[in-house]
Design brief:
This protein is an alpha+beta fold. The chain contains five helices and seven strands. It has one domain: Aminopeptidase (3-Layer(aba) Sandwich), CATH 3.40.630. The mean pLDDT is about 90.
Amino acid sequence: MELKLNKQARWSQKHLDFLIMHREAYGVDISEEAYNKEISNINRGEATLRCTKNQKCYEIYNEEVYIGDIVLEEDNEISIIIFDEYSGKGHAYNAITLLIEEKKKNYLEAVVRPSNQNKNIKKLLSKLGFINKNEVWVFKKEVY
């Protein structure tokens, strides 16, 4: 597995469709008008950036296949997307572990919304050492 920082990460139809399908989990609601506008941008080769200047977008590759993203906010909050066809195979665990180890992250936060129907996300975060503090899961590694 490899994390590749993409400073110019742009929207694709795959990203948009994923977020629409999992809108409750991510707290994102893309209107039909916004969706159609971005699809038009994509078709013209003018897709907009999907990360802000305060975010780092790490694309996740498994055996050179692009399988999702970890977005790291300036305040160390993470969001992870593993595309449906690759989910349930341990990729999220491996990607977050890699982020912690390679990027030397001693503190991370992950928000799990009550509307998130993915029952495995809490088990995953616990397994990684995150502690639940009212929907915000916190990872803190002691540094000696």
